[in-house]
UniProtKB/TrEMBL annotation:
<dbReference type="InterPro" id="IPR003313">
    <property type="entry name" value="AraC-bd"/>
</dbReference>
<dbReference type="InterPro" id="IPR037923">
    <property type="entry name" value="HTH-like"/>
</dbReference>
<dbReference type="InterPro" id="IPR018060">
    <property type="entry name" value="HTH_AraC"/>
</dbReference>
<dbReference type="InterPro" id="IPR018062">
    <property type="entry name" value="HTH_AraC-typ_CS"/>
</dbReference>
<keyword id="KW-0805">Transcription regulation</keyword>
<dbReference type="Pfam" id="PF02311">
    <property type="entry name" value="AraC_binding"/>
</dbReference>
<feature type="domain" description="HTH araC/xylS-type">
    <location>
        <begin position="179"/>
        <end position="277"/>
    </location>
</feature>
<dbReference type="InterPro" id="IPR009057">
    <property type="entry name" value="Homeodomain-like_sf"/>
</dbReference>
<keyword id="KW-0238">DNA-binding</keyword>
<dbReference type="InterPro" id="IPR020449">
    <property type="entry name" value="Tscrpt_reg_AraC-type_HTH"/>
</dbReference>
<dbReference type="Pfam" id="PF12833">
    <property type="entry name" value="HTH_18"/>
</dbReference>
<protein>
    <submittedName>
        <fullName>AraC family transcriptional regulator</fullName>
    </submittedName>
</protein>
<dbReference type="InterPro" id="IPR014710">
    <property type="entry name" value="RmlC-like_jellyroll"/>
</dbReference>
<keyword id="KW-0804">Transcription</keyword>
Length: 284
């Protein structure tokens, strides 16, 4: 799979010719039987639901999905009976043409495969609907200046697509870094973890890390760590005969009285009352 930078490098070498663009609303239970794609094109789904089967793999066709088709693909398209979909489409030709070391290089699509194909999920769908609306409007007009504006808009579309990919990757990387610290807390809850050390592990500032952690996990980092420790303490209180001080230390608290206060705050019972309620043997 190509990186965003590699896709950008390839797109930057291509010169496009728009063959057709349009806006369609399908009938309920619409079906386009399996066929071989003859032209490069893409479809942007804006409403409804359905499925596209591409080379034997089925994909959901729903708002926010962009499908890029290349010649030779085997494609079947169908819409749901109760939610027919609405979409924009654009058919295009291209050639690879660029200058390198003061020489022009030209390649046909057969020599330079298109860097995008299949289904893509978009993050900022309204932006792409806007580009397609504008392209559709311009398609219905004629003139050399209008044709130039169409080409510029198509380039803007590709640029917006690359920026959307990059934004998704950053969001995915951020979520992964949050989940990394979450796993780290699960494995090291008994250690003296600090908000600063967790933020450093995630590669984020303390304030940014705290906001993102709560957005992704639902707790602040410290609240999450506290709940982890109390969940483990509940297990030890019920299943072991360790003294309260030992249990407190085993879950990251050197002060058993502070641990008892936090336990009651989170659980609603003191450690002793929790033991009385959940097992017969008294805590020592």
């Amino acid at each position: 799979m190509l990186t965003t930078g590699e896709i950008a490098a390839q797109l930057n070498k291509l010169v496009f010719s728009i063959l057709l663009t349009g806006h369609r609303k399908n009938e309920p239970a619409w079906l386009q039987p399996l066929r071989t794609v003859r032209h490069h094109s893409f479809w942007l789904i804006v409403r409804g639901k359905g499925t596209f089967t591409i080379n034997g793999t089925m994909y959901p066709a729903e708002p926010g999905k962009l499908f890029v088709f290349i010649p030779g693909m085997l494609v079947e398209r169908r819409s749901d009976a109760d939610q027919p979909f609405e979409y924009y489409f654009l058919r295009f030709h291209y050639t690879e043409t660029y200058e390198e070391k003061e020489q022009w290089i030209c390649r046909s699509p057969a020599e330079s495969p298109f860097p995008l194909q299949g289904m893509y999920s978009l993050q900022n769908t309204p932006q792409f609907i806007y580009w397609m609306e504008q392209l559709f409007i311009l398609w219905q007009r004629r003139g050399h200046i209008t044709a130039m504006r169409r080409k510029i808009l198509l380039q803007e579309f590709w640029l917006a697509l690359l920026q959307d990919f990059r934004a998704q990757r950053r969001a995915g990387d951020t979520t992964a870094s949050i989940e990394l610290t979450q796993d780290y807390m699960v494995q090291h809850y008994q250690e003296q973890l600090t908000l600063e050390s967790l933020a450093q592990l995630a590669g984020l500032s303390v304030s940014h890390y705290s906001r993102l952690f709560k957005k992704v996990i639902g707790y602040s980092p410290i609240d999450y760590l506290t709940h982890l420790r109390m969940d483990r303490a509940k297990e030890l209180l019920v299943l072991s005969d360790y003294r309260l001080k030992s249990i407190a230390q085993s879950v990251g608290y050197h002060d058993e009285f502070y641990f008892s206060r936090m336990f009651k705050k989170i659980v609603g019972l003191s450690p002793r009352d929790y033991v009385k309620r959940h097992r017969a043997e008294p805590i020592r």
